[in-house]
Amino acid sequence: MFTIQRACAWSAVVCILLFFLAFIIAGFLPVPAPSLSQAEVVAMYQQHATGIRSGMLVMMMAGMFLLPTVGLISHHLRRIPNLPVALPYAQLSLGATNSMFFFIPAIMFLVTAYRPDRPPELTYLMNDMSWIFAVLPWPPAFMESVVIAVAILADKGAIKIFPRWVGWLNIWVALAFVPASLLVFVTTGPFAWNGIITFGLAGTMFLVWFIVMAWALLKAITAEERGA
Questions:
Q1: How many domains does the chain fold into?
Q2: First-to-last CA distance in the chain?
């Protein structure tokens, strides 16, 4: 049982590594700016179609590895004494929803790169749709982090399932996602979809969340194993 749990915890690390690997393979690091002209966007898809297709297939695999970790988090939230059962279930549903934002943007990028010879205005439109779908939908991730934070900070047990600072970290991670809302109003600057705040800050906190939660889960597994 505990070996499977550890595999689920390490799945978070695999997920985030595959996610960034997908962007590298696709040539999306640094992130192409929304201010690129139609001709530049079309040229990107025509010249790098194979890389984009390959990278987005890897991104879908990244989403697959998120799900075991989501289930494991819910299991350990349920171990918190007197915690309302709604919170672990809420985390489970929100985490499953978040996985779709690995799959759906990847598929949209794949569709965009599938026919790079289509009318340029359609490629331009699909590129906008793909990036906005990849960066904008922060509410499920926000709420998942808030639910995890509330559950951890509500732990009144003598021995905590997760350290309290992990709960506070989840609050900061949730807040880091909110500025993405502004990307629909700009095409340049820190709040654009490639901006230092919208993508840089959120991407950094995204990475930190996966690493910290994997570590916290491994510690929780060890504690549960000793108790068993």
A1: 1
A2: 11
